[in-house]
Amino acid sequence: MAARILDGKSIAATVRGEVKEAVDRLHARGVFPSLHVVLVGDDPASAVYVRNKARACEEVGIRGVTHRLPATTTEAEVLALLHRLNGDPEVDGVLVQLPLPPHISADRVIDAQDPARDVDGFHPVNLGRLVSGREGLVACTPAGCMRLIQETGIRLQGKRAVVLGRSLIVGKPMALLLLAAHATVTICHSRTRDLPARVAEADVLVAAIGQARLVRGEWIQEGTVVIDVGMNRDEEGRLCGDVDFEGASRQASFITPVPGGVGPMTIAFLLRNTLIAACARRGLPPPF
Ligand code: GUN
């Protein structure tokens, strides 16, 4: 049976449409939400991501401001900028693009963020809220993956979910969201023994381990929902995910393509988080 494709581009367009409607309602009340993105150094991939974020903001009517700082910027200078943004009542969301140059501590930068404006959901306060099952800002990629899973119509309650990868950005928050949705969650990583056996147990597989086509089609049981967060280059320089798409498509019930699956969802959920932050900070009712 051939898997159905989860079209991230089109689902993300729906989410962006929902955000735009909410932004329009805020504009009508004289509220103009804003997102400030901080880019330090000249990592070419980060430059592309940041440009895409700015463009996406513009399209839905969020004011997007990019702070481009040279690679020689000191940690103290980045922290000073964050303190300034934290004190500005017009700033709703702040995101510092990762990775940072090696002389800057990502932990200290994340700690200096205002949790109320932390649209990445990386601040320990927001992660703590997620662990505690409380309301907070949730990391964009895992939140986008949950929406993709929701689109399949499957009920997560009691299902076996396997997450490959334990990063702060994807793996850990993803596992917590699946747990909150009452799935039975296994987190696998580079040291996991017998990965094929763990993958074979999955009703839902979320792959975020960063290795081109690591997951073979034959590892996957029939009917699994496959969410591929990977964004890798293969030997021929082609963009590919963590899952062998061709093989997995023969087994899975639903699968995300790379590109065009999870990627577009991340930006859509960044915009969504910005609106959630804007309303919460300003004492307005939640927009969604
Ligand atoms: N670099 C790669 N992904 C992300 C992300 O989701 N947020 C930030 N700030 N940097 C990233």
Structural account:
The model has no long low-confidence stretch (mean pLDDT 98). The longest helix has 21 residues, at 8-28. The protein folds into two domains: 30-115, Leucine Dehydrogenase, chain A, domain 1 (Rossmann fold), CATH 3.40.50.10860; 140-263, Rossmann fold, CATH 3.40.50.720. The chain is α/β, with parallel strands linked by helices. The strands form three sheets. It has a six-stranded parallel β-sheet with strand order 1-11-8-7-5-6. Strands 3-2-4 form a three-stranded parallel β-sheet, with helices on both faces. The chain starts with a strand and ends in a 7-residue tail after the last helix. Helix 2 packs across helix 10 and helix 6 crosses helix 7 (171-180). It is globular. The chain has helices spanning 8-28, 44-60, 75-86, 106-111, 124-132, 140-152, 171-180, 195-200, 245-249, 262-281; strands spanning 4-5, 34-40, 63-69, 93-96, 160-164, 184-188, 204-207, 225-228, 232-233, 239-240, 254-255. The chain is built from ten helices and eleven strands. The structure holds guanine. Guanine (GUN) binds next to strand 4 and helix 6.
CATH superfamily heading of the largest domain? NAD(P)-binding Rossmann-like Domain
Topology as H/E string? EHEHEHEHHHEHEHEEEEHEH
Q: State the strand order across the main sheet.
A: 1-11-8-7-5-6
Strand content: 15-25%
Mass-distribution shape: globular
What topology does this entry show?
Layout: E1 4-5, H1 8-28, E2 34-40, H2 44-60, E3 63-69, H3 75-86, E4 93-96, H4 106-111, H5 124-132, H6 140-152, E5 160-164, H7 171-180, E6 184-188, H8 195-200, E7 204-207, E8 225-228, E9 232-233, E10 239-240, H9 245-249, E11 254-255, H10 262-281
Parallel strand pairs: 1-11, 2-3, 2-4, 5-6, 5-7, 7-8, 8-11
Antiparallel strand pairs: 9-10
Helix pairs in contact: 1-10, 2-10, 6-7, 6-10
Bound molecules: guanine.
